[in-house]
Design brief:
GO terms for molecular function: ATP binding. It is a single chain. The protein has 10 helices and 10 strands. It has 250 residues and is α/β, with parallel strands linked by helices. The strands form 2 sheets. The protein has a 6-stranded mixed sheet, sandwiched between helices. Strands 2-1-4-5 form a 4-stranded antiparallel sheet, covered by helices on one side. β4 and β5 form a beta hairpin. The longest helix has 16 residues. The radius of gyration is 18 Å and the shape is globular.
């Protein structure tokens, strides 16, 4: 059975204005896929609509020959860090334990099995020493790793992350991308809304280039081209990338 996610003719509108229009693409299983495009291109909208987190105007999203919502537990979503309530009185371990709730339900409390799972997930992201720390005390990179641990506790097959590297230091970003690559190598499927084009070739196997409409998608080597970038961003951005790559090569 095909484990890819099929997005067909997906459109979303806000207050009558199109956010994304008629998007057709396939998100490949067991890959690290980036979604890129200029500000306002609809990247987060595409991700949220695919997961059923916001209403769509049109289209279908299927997985394992069924509507994706029939397999919702196989999908974990990590929202933008800026949307988190850091004043909420919960510690790091409590946040990760929340990832077990979709399986145990809201009525039954997590038991020993779930707590052991949450601890293993904290170990995987290297934050067991922070287990009792309130989430508002963490750095941006630490908080992002906690959210990833919570997603791991869901024991999902797919991980969707919305701008996970915004506002974190370079060392934390490297730690997180290395962990995501490890998860991919273990058979997980990962989709990331991303903004830094200089990292695309290093980070991703496949790429979705969007600007309200789909510009291109597929393997990075075939998709991340000057022609496609000009269609998505205009000529100015392609020159910026060339300059950035020259700088990085020095």
């Amino acid at each position: 059975m095909n484990n890819n996610v099929f997005i067909e003719n997906l459109s979303v509108a806000y207050q009558g204005k199109p956010a994304i229009q008629s998007v057709d693409l396939v998100l490949s299983a067991n890959k690290l896929t980036g979604i890129v495009g200029p500000n306002g291109a609809g990247k987060s909208t595409l991700m949220k609509a695919a997961l059923g987190l916001i209403p769509k105007s049109n289209g279908s999203i299927t997985y394992l020959d069924e509507p994706l919502k029939s397999n919702q537990r196989r999908f974990a979503y990590v929202e933008q860090r800026q949307n988190a309530d850091l004043s909420f009185p919960i510690d790091v371990f409590g946040v990760v334990l929340l990832g077990t709730y979709p399986k145990v339900g809201l009525i039954r409390r997590p038991g020993k099995k779930e707590k052991e799972l949450a601890w293993r997930c904290l170990e995987k992201v290297g934050l067991t020493d922070f287990a009792k720390r309130q989430i508002g005390e963490l750095s941006g990179g630490q908080l992002q790793r906690v959210f990833l641990a919570r997603a791991l506790a869901q024991e999902a097959d797919w991980f969707f992350l919305d701008e996970p590297f915004v506002g974190i230091d370079a060392s934390s970003e490297r730690t997180i991308i290395d962990l995501l690559k490890q998860l991919r190598n273990e058979g997980k499927s990962i989709v990331i809304v991303h903004h830094d084009l200089h990292k695309v070739r290093d980070y991703f196997d496949e790429l979705v280039l969007l600007n309200k409409e789909l510009i291109a998608y597929g393997e990075v080597s075939q998709t991340f081209t000057a022609e496609n970038l000009q269609k998505g961003y205009g000529e100015e951005i392609t020159e910026m990338i060339r300059l950035g790559e020259r700088k990085n090569d020095r």
